[in-house]
Specification:
By secondary structure, the protein is an all-alpha fold. The chain has one domain (6-160). It contains eight helices and no strands. Helix 2 (28-39) packs across helix 4 and helix 3 crosses helix 4. The protein is globular, with a radius of gyration of 16 Å.
Length: 161
């Protein structure tokens, strides 16, 4: 991880929130760092709401016309905020720098492929709305357990449609 102190981590969060983080600096580690701070001390629902609102604000700050281009991905947002929330709520009272270092090193971009096929994850439907994982999820997997209520709600919604 390229950040060496907590002030740098807080700077990532502040620049995300005020839309000044450059697009080229907004990568996977920065997504995880922001999600960590939103998950720390907040419910999963609150963390998700903050993250989604912030991503849309940042896309607008990047000058993206959301009526013609939609880089936002709902399933990945739900997946990652759930994974990070599981991580942050399971941490002992370590400092934020150590927690973020562990998070970034242990949660690579490939993690969703443990839960989703490539075809489903990158489908138009998965971009537009949350879709449940289509690969087997272990009963002891903390992320899988946290996704389970969302999976049930999603299946109920599909049956109603």
């Amino acid at each position: 991880m390229k950040y060496s102190n907590e002030d740098e981590l807080f700077s990532v969060l502040a620049r995300f929130e005020d839309g000044t983080i450059p697009r080229e600096d907004w990568g996977h580690p920065e997504h995880l760092i922001v999600a960590y701070f939103y998950s720390k001390g907040n419910s999963l629902e609150t963390a998700y709401s903050l993250m989604k609102k912030g991503i849309f604000g940042l896309l607008t700050a990047f000058g993206i016309d959301l009526s013609t281009e939609m880089p936002y991905h709902e399933t990945l947002t739900v997946f990652w905020i759930t994974a990070v929330h599981c991580f942050s709520t399971s941490r002992a009272a370590k400092d934020d720098l150590e927690n973020c270092r562990e998070l970034v090193e242990g949660h690579g971009k490939q993690l969703p492929s443990k839960y989703y096929s490539h075809e489903l994850l990158f489908s138009d439907k998965a971009r537009a709305q949350f879709v449940p994982p289509n690969l087997p999820v272990s009963e002891t997997d903390p992320v899988g357990k946290a996704l389970r209520p969302l999976m049930i709600r999603s299946r109920i919604s599909e049956k109603r449609e």
